[in-house]
């Protein structure tokens, strides 16, 4: 197993740590959890960079990397719904898209095609990470409003829009795979 895939597995292993900290009664647990969340999310760029730089891009990495992102974001969003920071419908849209895209990618792999993460999917992930971090840190004074709407809410809605658009993009890409018998 190459270093990039190991880093992705480290990201996955950070998820239970992130959740444990959120659920703990540690003072300022949301700040500590935000730091762990950002560290985990930050490994996404690192593993991709290393895989490309070392010419060690693998099908396992193409599968594990987006899966790790989905697990991290989904666990954070579910917790934020419990706190009342995110509406359930937002989490449902994001999680449904992730299940659908994962299913499509799995079917494509069965047909011998690997659908790598798109630039839209990567942008969606960036906005989701920023939104989750902002929601975890929302009581800090540097979060402001634009026309009375909190900036974290604007970022979250942008993430939802990008989630839907990138999901449609994957469906279009995968439909081409199904055109060939």
Give your account of this protein's structure.
The chain is mainly alpha-helical and 181 residues long. It has a single domain, classed as Four Helix Bundle (Hemerythrin (Met), subunit A), CATH 1.20.120. Helices cover 78% and strands 2% of the residues. It is built from six helices and two strands, in the order αααααββα. The chain has helices spanning 3-23, 29-53, 59-83, 88-110, 119-136, 151-179; strands spanning 145-146, 149-150. It has a two-stranded antiparallel sheet. The longest helix has 29 residues, at 151-179. The protein is globular. It starts with a helix and ends with a helix. The model has no long low-confidence stretch (mean pLDDT 88).
Number of domains: 1
Number of strands: 2
CATH topology: Four Helix Bundle (Hemerythrin (Met), subunit A)
- Which blocks of ≥5 consecutive residues have pLDDT under 50? none
* Strand percent estimate: under 5%
CATH-derived architecture = Up-down Bundle
Main structural class:
mainly alpha
Which value, in Å, is the CA radius of gyration? 17 Å
As a percent range, the share of helical residues equals over 70%
- Label the overall shape: globular
Q: What is the string of helix and strand elements?
A: HHHHHEEH
Number of helical segments with 4 or more residues: 6
Mean pLDDT: 88
Strand order of the largest sheet: 1-2
Mind telling me the CATH class?
A: Mainly Alpha
Largest beta-sheet characterization: 2 strands, antiparallel
Termini gap: 33 Å
């Amino acid at each position: 197993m190459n270093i990039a895939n190991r880093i992705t597995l480290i990201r996955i292993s950070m998820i239970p740590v992130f959740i444990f900290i959120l659920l703990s009664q540690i003072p300022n647990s949301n700040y500590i959890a935000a730091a762990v969340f950002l560290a985990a999310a930050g490994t996404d760029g690192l593993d991709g960079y290393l895989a490309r730089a070392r010419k060690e891009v693998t099908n396992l990495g193409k599968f594990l990397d987006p899966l790790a992102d989905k697990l991290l974001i989904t666990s954070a969003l579910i917790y934020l719904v419990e706190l009342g920071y995110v509406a359930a419908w937002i989490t449902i849209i994001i999680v449904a898209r992730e299940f659908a895209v994962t299913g499509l990618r799995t079917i494509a792999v069965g047909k011998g095609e690997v659908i790598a993460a798109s630039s839209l999917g990567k942008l969606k992930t960036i906005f989701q990470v920023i939104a989750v971090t902002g929601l975890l840190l929302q009581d800090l004074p540097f979060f402001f409003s634009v026309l009375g709407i909190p900036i974290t809410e604007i970022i979250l809605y942008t993430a939802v829009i990008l989630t839907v658009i990138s999901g449609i993009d994957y469906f279009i890409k995968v439909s081409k795979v199904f055109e060939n018998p």
